[in-house]
Request: fold
Amino acid sequence: MSYDLLIRNGLVIDGTGNPGFEADVVKVVSAYFIDEHGWSRKQASWILGGIIFLLGIPSAFWERFFGLMDGLATNYLLPIGAFLMPSLRDEC
Reply:
């Protein structure tokens, strides 16, 4: 069984024959700011995309920064998020 992967304009199409799906890493975060703070979709996309871009600049030029961010996310942010998920789920 062979698989192909095509990513074009944010649409991911794999070789399984299933319909393509959108790959958007900002969608969940932007939905929060749209719902909770009343931002427009355009405003949320530009601001959050800009923040992600600015955080990506040091990663492109300084390999140690990428390792630092990876360690921060893996060792602290993911475990803290895992502990907070049950309490946040009850609020919804």
User: Anything to note?
Assistant: The beta strands are 5-8, 11-14, 21-22. The chain has three helices and three strands. The CA atoms of residues 47 and 53 lie 10 Å apart. The chain has a mean pLDDT of 82.
